[in-house]
Design a protein that fits this description.
This protein is mainly alpha-helical and 131 residues long. The chain is built from six helices and two strands; from the N terminus they run H-H-H-H-H-E-E-H. Strands 1-2 form a two-stranded antiparallel ribbon. Strand 1 and strand 2 form a beta hairpin. It is globular. The chain starts with a helix and ends in a 7-residue tail after the last helix.
C-alpha cells in the first residue's frame, strides 16, 4: 500500500507535470491534513499558520488539483480522486482505501512532462510491494 510520502510525491509529480511548479510545505501539509480528515483549524495549527490562511491556500490548492486531475477535487473526495488517478491503494494508519486491489511499490515518473494514465502508471510501477 502507498504511504503518505508516496501519495504526496505522486501529487507533487502530477502538479509539476501540469504547472512546472512543485508543492510548497503548506500545500503538502494541507494535503496531508485533508487525507487524514482534519479540519482547517487543525491543519493550520500543524503548519504554523492561521486557519484563514490555511483555508485560502487549501481552496486554491483544490482548484489547482481539479485542473491537474481534470475532475472536481474537494476536501471530501481527494482520496478517491488520487486513487482513481493512480489506481492506488492508500494506507493512512488504521484506515485503508482500496482501488483495483493493486499494491504498488514505487512509481518512477522519470522526466516525462505528462500526467501518466492509469495504464501508463501501471507500466511505471516498480515490482514488489511495500511492507
Amino acid at each position: 500500500m502507498m504511504r503518505l510520502q508516496e501519495i504526496l510525491q505522486f501529487i507533487d509529480d502530477a502538479v509539476y507535470a501540469k504547472t512546472g511548479k512543485h508543492l510548497n510545505d503548506l500545500q503538502r501539509g494541507i494535503i496531508e491534513g485533508t487525507l487524514k480528515r482534519q479540519k482547517y483549524d487543525d491543519i493550520a495549527e500543524n503548519c504554523g499558520c492561521s486557519a484563514g490562511h490555511a483555508k485560502d491556500v487549501g481552496y486554491e490548492l483544490l482548484q489547482m488539483l481539479s485542473d491537474v486531475f481534470d475532475e472536481e477535487v474537494d476536501k471530501k473526495n481527494l482520496k478517491s480522486v488520487v486513487e482513481r488517478q493512480g489506481a492506488l491503494n492508500i494506507s493512512l494508519g488504521a484506515r485503508s482505501f482500496n482501488s483495483n486491489n493493486n499494491i504498488i511499490g514505487c512509481v518512477n515518473m522519470g522526466s516525462e512532462q505528462t500526467i501518466p494514465t492509469p495504464d501508463r502508471l501501471k507500466q511505471l510501477i516498480n515490482y514488489g510491494s511495500l511492507a
